[in-house]
Amino acid sequence: MKSVLVLGAGLQGICTAYYLSKHGLDVTLIERNEGPALEASKGNGGYLQAEFPEIWNAPGIVSVLAKAWRASLGSKRHEAAMLVDTKELLRLVPWGLRFLRSANTQSFLDNTLTNRLLAQYSLEQMAELRAHTGIAYDHAQQGALFVFRDTQSMDVYRPMLDHLEKRGGCFEFLDQKQLLALEPVLQPIGEQLCGAIRYQNDASGNSYLFAQSLLDLAIVNGVRVKYGAPVLNILKQAQKICVQVKDEVLEANSLVIAAGVESKLLAQNLGIKLHIAPVKGYSLTIPLGDWHNRPSHVIADMGVHAGVTVLGDVLRVAGTAEFCGYDYALPDERIEYLLKLTEQILPDFAATMDRTKISPFAGLRPLSADGMPFIGRSQFANVFINTGHGGLGWTQAAGSGRALADLIAGVKPGIDLTPFAPTRSV
Ligand SMILES: Cc1cc2nc3c(=O)[nH]c(=O)nc-3n(C[C@H](O)[C@H](O)[C@H](O)COP(=O)(O)OP(=O)(O)OC[C@H]3O[C@@H](n4cnc5c(N)ncnc54)[C@H](O)[C@@H]3O)c2cc1C
Hints:
The longest helix has 29 residues, at 105-133. Helix 1 runs parallel beside helix 8 (207-220). The model has no long low-confidence stretch (mean pLDDT 96). The chain has two domains: 3-41 and 209-274 and 372-420, 3-Layer(bba) Sandwich (FAD/NAD(P)-binding domain), CATH 3.50.50; 50-116 and 138-203 and 276-368, D-Amino Acid Oxidase, subunit A, domain 2 (D-Amino Acid Oxidase, Chain A, domain 2). The protein is of the alpha/beta class. Helices cover 34% and strands 25% of the residues. Strand 16 and strand 17 (314-323) form a beta hairpin. It contains twelve helices and 20 strands. The chain binds flavin-adenine dinucleotide (FAD). Residues 7-13, 30-33, 37-41, 44-47, 49, 230-231, 258-260, 262, 266, 281-283, 318, 363, 365-366, 387, 389-395 line the site of flavin-adenine dinucleotide.
C-alpha cells in the first residue's frame, strides 16, 4: 500500500490526511505539538469567506505597508492594525518584491477570483462532510457584512464587485438605514457607519472543533498521529522519503509538507522554494453569557480592521497583521488593543462581558507572495505541498486537502490545481 507522511497537524495537514485515508492510503501525521491544531488553526476569525476571498495584495497596499512600518516605530505601535518591524525588513525583501508585483488591479482580481473557486469548492466539501459524517463545529450559514465608516473606502469595492457579479457572485450594497435594520446590534455605533457590503452566502464555524473532529474520523480510517515530534530533517531518495523526528526516522513513499509558516524552512531542506511569510494575528474568544442581542452575521469592520463572529456560545474577535517574523509572543498590549476594538464594534456587549473569561490567542498566518496557496506536487515526484493560505486557510482547508489527496491517490481533483502549483512562478 502506498504510504504518505504528512508534516503538520493544522487544518491543512489534517484535511489532507483525512482525505488520503478515504483513498485507503497508509498515512502518518507528524506534529511537533502535543495535540492537533494548536497554532494558526486554533483561534482564527472563524469566517468562511467564500464569496469574495480577497487577497491582501490590493492595489495601494504599498502606502498601507509604509504606514504600518511608521506605526511600528511610534509609541502607539500597540494600537495599530498593521505593523511591519524594521528588523524584519531586510528578510522580507525577496518575498515583499513578489508580493508587490501582484499588487495591481489585474492580479488582484485574477488571484481573488481564482481563490474563490477553491473557497467555493471547499465549502462544498464541508457540506458533504456534515451530511455524511455529522461533523459538528458550530457551523452557521448566516452571511457576512463588511461595514464601512467612510464612503470612499466602500466605493473602492464597487468596480471590483462588478467583476464578481459577472461570475455570478451574490452580494448587495446596503446604506446605513438598511444596514441597521438588518443588523440592529450595530445601532449603538450606527452614526459612525455609512453602509455595508453583504455577502449573503458566507458562513462561519469553529476551526479548532472541526480540526479535532476530522482528525478523530481520520484516525478511525487508520491514520496514525505522532505528537511531540518536531521534524528535524528530511531526506529524499528516488522511491522513498525519510523524515527524522527526535529519536526516530520515519519512511514513506511520499511526503506532504503542510506545516504552516514552518513549511518554508522544511521545504528548504529539499531545495524547494516556497515564497511565504509569517503574518501574525490575534484573537479573543469571549463567552457570550446571557447577552441575547447577538450579531446575526459575521461582521468585518473595515474602519477598525477587525472582525467579530459568533461561534456557538462565544464571540470571536480577530484582527491585526504583523510582519514580525517567527514571533509567537502574545503581549498584553495587543490583548488590550483587541478589547478596545471590541468596545468600538459592540459597545453594549463590551460593557457586560466577563473579562476574566476571555481567551486570547496569537497565530502566524502563512501568507504566499501572490495571495494564493501552494497546493500540489513540488519539483519532486513524491513531495507535495499544502500551505500558504494566509488569512483564508480555514475557508480553503477542506477543498485544499481533498484536491491534494485526490492528486496523490491518482484521481483527477474536482478543481483545477494548476493556478496553485507550488512550482508556479511567483
Ligand atoms: C488571527 C487569525 C485570524 C484568522 N482568521 C481567518 C478566518 O476568519 N478565515 C479563514 O479562512 N482563515 C483565517 N485565518 C487563517 C487560517 O487560520 C490559517 O491560514 C490556517 O489555520 C493555516 O493552517 P495550516 O495548517 O497551514 O497552519 P497551522 O495551523 O499553523 O498548522 C501547521 C502545523 O504544523 C506544525 N509544525 C510546524 N513545524 C513543524 C515541524 N518542524 N515538525 C512538526 N510539526 C510542525 C505546527 O505545530 C502546526 O500544528 C486566520 C489566522 C489568524 C492567525
